[in-house]
Amino acid sequence: MKLLRSSITLGLALLISACASADTATHPLVEAWHAGKAIVITTSPNPDNTDETYGDFAHYLNNFAASAGDHWAFFALDPQASPPKLPIEFGFTLTHYSVVFIKQNEAQGYVYPGPILEPQVYDFVQRQFEGREIPDYLYQFSPDEVQVDFEEENGLLRVDTKT
Amino acid sequence: MARSSCFGPFELKSGDSDKKQIFGGHRRPNAASYVTALQEALRAVDIPLAIVDGQFGPGTEQALKMFQWCLTAHPYRRFNQSLVTDTCKVTQALSGRLDTQTASELNRWIAQGYVSTGDLIRLDSKQLDHVEVGVGFRVLSHVSVCEGDVVLSAAAADLLSTANKKAGERCVKLVLNQAFRVNGVPVSGAVVTPATRSQHLIGHAIDCNIVDGSNWNNSRTFAAGRQTEGATNFIDDMKNAGYRWGGNFSNPDTPHFDKRLNPYGDAYEFKFFFNQRIIANNHPIPLKNLN
Ligand SMILES: [Zn+2]
Fold first, then answer.
1. Which domain of life does this protein belong to (chain A) (predicted)?
2. Which end of chain B has the smaller Cβ count within 10 Å, N or C?
3. Residue A98 maps to which CATH number?
4. Which residue of B has its CA nearest to A142?
């Protein structure tokens, strides 16, 4: 599946924000943010049901979602949806099957560029967001840190690379 | 229930019909119900068959192939809620025809009280010196499965035993994240659609990290080309032993190793059905001793 390696352009991300800005006040993503929930967003193009890599990615994500608890909220960003649904803007290229982790009042969010194929990645972020101890080895699974802001004026979450 | 002579003297096949009195492809006006007897016998050994109607159509042919797969693919039979190993070894083509051997075996199964099952086994990870289950490894929800059990197809048990051996030779440790995978979505729902065909779904795959000293060779380690020499050597050993490494997939999946079975063949379809049914119905899973 060639899609996996292709990337969603910044233009698409901007389009997402432009189209989504009209009705964001009560969007579940914004509600989850203000409620202080840990939020997981993944890009989810059409799945390739016979691809082992996709299968592993879907398995670990769904398993994590099933066990994470009520303080976590999960969203799939469908780049083919028209108009795009999520009120979020990324200031960087987001590859397919990437996973973004954000939470209000955290020093940073995280982006994992591509499919997460190891549950330790989820374990790391969960421990970080829940303020639990992180064993040394888990730092080897840390995703990239990103900066997250909520833009009150247009009701958008903005995610940028950390400077 | 079918008795020993119920299938008649003909090789029953697709197109045969009790109603039309066609058996073995020819009209034989002997007023028997051989196809119905076959269909009832297949149901008696718990092979899925939607209708018992005396017509040998695609459903009966598929059911017969599934029984033939059980004959030759593995020795496990259910018997009185438990599991037995059939010592009678048979090599049988998946022809979908009731040849002499298939008829004989079907009669023998019914006489013995055998019922069909899959080839899932449990391997105790504590018996493996160089493999351990990771924190994220999920214990399957099944009455037979204990903490530390790794569930795989019996036909792919060598994938794990070989990995354990090669890891020892290369002085690395394997941390398992997944082996057999239950099909479908979690009860609480799915964020993304699960894959419908995978070597995990039949028990022919494992996902693991190769830990070399304090280095966990993970997906990003490989993506950056920073994997350790021990990991590289271990992977070469596994590939030389005939297994696939996910790092060679067009969409790399570096923790993944499998013993591939063509996902579009009958053998995959049947193993998928029987092995998933073991979990869904809590059928027994034997513990296999790796030593
Ligand atoms: Zn896998």
1. Bacteria
2. C
3. 3.40.30.10
4. B220
How far away is chain A from the Cα of B172, in angstroms, using its nearest Cα? 15
Cβ-defined contact of A63 to B190 (cutoff 8 Å): no
Radius of gyration of chain A (CA): 15
Residue A17 lies in a domain: no
Residue B173 to residue B164: CA distance in whole angstroms: 8
- Residues across chain A: 163
Count the helices and strands in chain A (H runs, E runs): 4, 9
> What's the CA-to-centroid distance between A154 and ligand 1, angstroms?
41
Instruction: Say if B212 is an interface residue toward chain A (CB within 8 Å).
Output: no
Non-local (6+) Cβ contacts of B274 within 8 A are B66, B70, B116, B117, B118, B119
In this complex, do B255 and A115 lie within 8 Å of one another by their Cβ atoms? Answer: no
CB contact under 8 Å between A56 and B251, yes or no, is: no
pLDDT digits (tens, 9 = 90+) for A70-109: 999 999 887 666 555 788 888 888 888 899 999 998 989 9
Does A114 contact B219 at a Cβ distance shorter than 8 Å?
Answer: yes
Distance of alpha carbon B104 from alpha carbon B99, whole angstroms: 9
What is the distance between the alpha carbons of residues B287 and A124, in angstroms, rounded to a whole number?
Answer: 33
B14 interfaces chain A, CB cutoff of 8 Å: no
Show me where the domains of chain B are located. Answer: 22-112, 120-288
List of chain A residues whose C-beta atoms are within 8 Å of the C-beta of residue B181? 55, 59
Please indicate whether, in this complex, the C-beta atoms of A76 and B191 are within 8 angstroms of each other: yes
pLDDT at B288: 92
Residue A1 belongs to a domain: no
Query: What confidence tier does B112 reach under pLDDT thresholds 50, 70, 90?
Result: very high
Domain B120-288 is found in CATH 3.30.1380.10: yes
Q: Show the domain range for A39.
A: 27-161
ipTM: 0.91
Q: Which of A59, A77, A137 to mutate to test the interface with B (most CBs of B within 10 A)?
A: A59
Mean pLDDT of chain B: 94
Q: Which of B186, B197, B219 lies nearest to residue A117, judging by beta carbons? A: B219
State residue B188's pLDDT score: 75
Is residue A146, in this structure, part of any structural domain at all?
yes
Whether the pLDDT of residue A13 is over 90: the answer is no
Domain presence at residue A7: no
CA distance to partner chain B, nearest, from residue A15 (Å): 23
Question: How many Cα atoms within 13 Å fall on the side-chain side of residue B79?
Answer: 13
Computed on alpha carbons and rounded to an integer, the radius of gyration of chain B in Å comes to: 22
Mean pLDDT computed over A113-140: 96
